[in-house]
Amino acid sequence: MTLAIMGAMEEEVEPLLERFENVKVTEIADNKYYETTYNGNNIVIAYSKIGKVNAALTATLMIEKFGAEKLIFTGVAGALNPKLKVGDMVVATKLIQHDVDITAFGHPWGFIPESGDFVECDAALVSKAKESAKAIGVDLLDGIIATGDQFIADSKKKDFIVDTYKADATEMEGASVAYVCKCMNVPFVVLRSISDAADMDAGFDFEEFLKSSAKTSADFCLKMLDNL
Ligand code: ADE
User: Fold this and answer.
1) Class of CATH domain 2-227
2) What count of other Cβ atoms lies within 10 Å of the Cβ of residue 41?
3) Residue 78 alpha carbon to ligand 1 centre in Å
4) pTM for the whole thing?
């Protein structure tokens, strides 16, 4: 099996790359892809750079050029659910692009004609994430992730996303990767560790906790690999 593991920022995949030896690096479309093997599986790792377009490009290339048959996204997110604190882990059950707005034509927020709104993660991979969490004693929240090309650091925007989508966490890539994987029939899951609360302190908190929360998520992802 070929498994793709992707993040958005270097900090999100660095803790993974550190663990592997014999990594082959290939450059395509202004980005680097790292191939290795683990537990008898081929693994391709990359960070896409921030945002939905970059993430969709990377996910597509991982599937088309590197033959990824499953995909795990690992990284950080802003908490929307007050139960979530910095360093907590979230697995997405479904994701939505919160910034899609064609309400002028009567469509609900987040909805694209012929494309839909929420995309569900692969149930088997979500179960594997939960099993891994149980095995290592991590409190893993399963919930809705709202994705947009916006860093949310404002309580009005945060409230809008919560009220509109009932989302538990927000980030800038997951739903675009989810949509690519859905269209290309590739089972996927999105794992995120909280770096901030998407509020007025989010910018400071993100800078302070990016590295540690990114490592928390990457370490969790590695534990999950042992259970796949
Ligand atoms: N990723 C981590 N924190 C975030 C936030 N507050 N908004 C969007 N993406 C994030």
Assistant:
1) alpha beta
2) 14
3) 4
4) 0.98
